[in-house]
Design a protein that fits this description.
The complex is a heterodimer. By secondary structure, chain A is mainly beta. Helices cover 6% and strands 46% of the residues of chain A. Chain A starts with a helix and ends in a 12-residue tail after the last strand. Chain B starts with a strand and ends in a 7-residue tail after the last strand. The chains are: A mainly beta, B alpha+beta.
Chain lengths: 223, 211
């Protein structure tokens, strides 16, 4: 009886909205392998760089690499049982998975958004700026685009929300913006100076800024 | 031989014994200080200078320029990393050292060369394969010595223009942060006629001056 109660409690916990619960235990590596405990499978991806664990498995983004070194961008899904993975070829490099509006979404490097529905990736009605990352996706999206890598590119880094219709220019690059205690924190780079900003998620207003006197490992350590 | 740069006209003139040997399109910085938060754009400073040397340039100021153009690369897909060769033959990690992962490099190469590969050499340095340096010759001996220092501004091509040149595409020139941008083919021509020979007199005209 006690064992049945324990089992029921475990099942109940796993049915709650903890996305990684039944997917937990799945480990992925850059070399394309996925493991669950002692079991390991090798996917067809030779280079994985992004993943999202969900209830029943894990989504992976990476490349199949051919004999002459050409990389073909793919998404793969490996279920918890490590059965034969599924693959979807992509026209642009996947950038990030995230959950939004009760669905798994994919953002690619061109800013195109897709959501996963009925075993297919479908293009969303709106897109984000190229090279963006999503930093908040609870009820609305907040995304940030980094400062360009090339010296001759002139589009500045920024954070923005398409739903809340705000945009703030913040020139970040090496430290990813993050939501810390409910507030977006961005470490901006102005030449050698590092300036941390706290930005209200709903309004986009900068509520606090301070110049950093020492390096920080992540945005949440700036304040 | 002398070089005369007219930044307001985006024009570089090569003169030898009062004869014009060539006119080349060349883009300098803006006429007044800009607002790029990474590093404000500045005018190509008017003045009289002397050409010193040409070399593959690197700087920590710009992430992609932390590795010299042409540095051998080693693809490490199983680590989502690309290694670059260090002096002495050891290897550094692009991911660890400059914060650029393998998929960033694949994407960069695709944007420039329309192919998703990790190139065999670093072709992303903002200053191209070679930068031509100049200095203010304080003592008039046409040699960099004493308190004389190389200018932080220089002649160079961009990684985008190098890729366009390699692919046979039109070269899209853009303003600089103060340096002088050249087309790859013009850089080669200028070398061929001896315009970048060390000791060559080089004059940057004022922005309002016209040739």
């Amino acid at each position: 009886m006690k064992n049945i109660k324990k089992l029921l409690i475990v099942l109940l916990v796993c049915l709650l909205p903890f996305p990684a619960c039944l997917g937990e235990g799945l480990q992925w590596r850059h070399d394309g392998s996925v493991s669950h405990g002692q079991r390991v499978i090798q996917t067809q991806l030779q280079s994985i760089y992004e993943a999202l664990a969900v209830n029943d498995g894990i989504f992976l983004a990476g490349y199949k690499i051919d004999k002459v070194g050409v990389n073909y961008p793919y998404i793969a899904f490996v279920d918890q049982k490590l059965e034969e993975p599924r693959y979807w070829a992509q026209s642009a490099d996947p950038k990030q998975f995230f959950e939004f509006d009760h669905r798994v979404h994919l953002l690619d490097v061109e800013g195109t958004l897709f959501f996963f529905e009925k075993e297919e990736w479908r293009q969303a009605a709106f897109s984000l700026k190229p090279d963006s990352i999503v930093v908040h996706s609870s009820n609305f999206l907040v995304a940030c685009r980094p400062a360009p890598l090339m010296m001759t590119d002139t589009e500045l880094g920024c954070c923005y929300s398409p739903q809340k219709q705000w945009q703030v220019e913040v020139n970040w690059r090496s430290i990813k913006p993050a939501v810390c205690d409910g507030v977006l924190t961005v470490v901006e780079e102005r030449g050698p100076k590092r300036i941390a900003h706290r930005i209200d998620l709903k309004s986009g207003k900068i509520v606090k800024s301070k110049q950093l006197t020492a390096p920080v490992e992540d945005a949440c350590r700036a304040f | 031989m002398e070089l005369h740069f007219y930044p307001g006209q985006k024009l570089l003139v090569v003169i030898d014994k009062y004869i014009v040997h060539g006119r080349f399109e060349a883009w300098g910085g803006p006429a007044s200080i800009g607002t790029d938060p990474r590093m404000p754009e500045e005018p190509t400073w008017p003045g009289e200078y002397v050409i010193d040397k040409a070399h593959a340039y690197r700087t920590n100021t710009w992430p992609l320029s932390r590795i010299t153009w042409g540095t051998p690369l080693r693809d490490m897909p199983g680590q989502n990393d690309v290694w670059y060769q260090l002096p002495g033959g050891k290897w550094g990690s692009a991911k660890a050292d400059i914060g650029i992962s393998r998929n960033d490099i694949v994407n960069l190469n695709f944007n420039l060369y329309n192919i998703r590969t990790v190139p065999r050499q670093w072709v992303f340095n903002d200053f191209g394969p070679v930068a031509i340096r100049w200095f203010k010759d304080l003592n008039g001996n046409r040699i960099l010595d004493g308190k004389e220092r190389l200018s932080g501004q220089m002649f160079h091509t961009t990684q985008k223009n190098e890729a366009q040149h390699t692919r046979g595409l039109p070269i899209a020139m853009v303003p600089s942060h103060g340096c002088i941008h050249l087309r790859p083919i013009d850089r080669d021509r200028l070398f061929a006629v001896g315009a970048f020979k060390p000791g060559t007199r080089f004059v940057v005209r004022k922005y309002y001056e016209k040739y």
